[in-house]
Write a structure and sequence with these properties.
Helix content is about 55%, strand content about 10%. It has helices at about 10-15, 30-35, 85-90, 110-120, 135-145, 155-165, 175-185, 190-200, 205, 210-230, 235-245, 250-260, 260-280, 285-295, 300-315, 320-335, 335-340, 350-370, and strands at about 1-5, 25, 40, 50, 55-60, 65, 75, 100, 105, 120, 150. Helix 5 (about 135-145) packs across helix 8 (about 190-200) and helix 14 packs across helix 18.
Amino acid sequence: MHIYLVGGAVRDQLLNREIKERDYVVVGATIAQMKQLGYTQVGKDFPVFLHPQTKDEHALARTERKQGQGYTGFVCDFNPSITLEQDLERRDLTVNAIAQRDDGTLVDPYNGCADIEKRLLRHVSPAFSEDPLRVLRVARFRARYHALGFHIAPETLALMTTIANSGELAALTPERVWMEWHKALTDGYIDVFLDVLNQCQALAVLCPALAQRWDKIKSHLCATMTYAREHNVGETCQFALVMSTLDCQARQDFYRHFRVPNQFAELADALATHQSLLSQSTYSAKELLALFNQLDIWRRPQRLDDLVAAHTGVCLGDFANKPRLLDSAKAAQAVDAQTYIRQGIKGAAIKEALIQGRLEAIEDCLASGD
């Protein structure tokens, strides 16, 4: 039995990047042997085990044979005779098909190290086309390593285009597609991710409304994302910046189809809905109070902060009214119902007094800024 470190940990180590998780492949072992050694089996479709101490994942070396549509239609063979080279051959990219022995030496049968030096994302074998999810994965890797100068090999991009046009992307589950989107958002280069999907014609399949507008919105979206990265704007704000380029129906279709979490959809809709108001040169107290009520900043103040961050990204930082908006919100939030209760006001009158008090607080704040 031989154990090798594989995949992302080896790749990121060679790129001098932080290693977030370590995965291992085990060659020459059986399920029974792994259990006897104290490993806990967790894999359903193929044997994956957790190390008894470190809890790192250890998978038996395997080969895969396509049998069905999508990214789950595979038959796996994980008998002890499967070699390391056979296991590495089934992987997506050469940079992910490098193994490392305990002594630190590398096993690199598909020239992944050379491709890392070339900053090249290249598929390992023609079997790449058997898994449509790899189209999104390659787009995500291209985005993640954008700052390092990585590019996609022409033959790999051509293969991704063939997959996109084959209808196989339709077999991907909405949850899995959203997971790739979310990872790209987390990495901070969603604009690069989307541009790659557009280049290989996958964006037209996954989000036709965005693909139809891509040539028109690409330049400004890339500029807003660059600003977002430079100012540490979070993933929900980045998603809102992308979705704000679509009309309401297209956004709702996307949320519904890919089961987008509520916090992402809510901010995206808030930005699209209130962008016109936020762009005004002046505000009225009634407009701001209506905005604060719709956002429910009384119970969820973070909503306004997120909206302001997203709109600031749209403006590329040129949001002159930002201090006035935030000061008005702070003044309105300081108006407390308890003040009116102590004055003897009761029942429905409390709500009316609270509304009037908040309105006056906003008016005073706006007047002081003139």
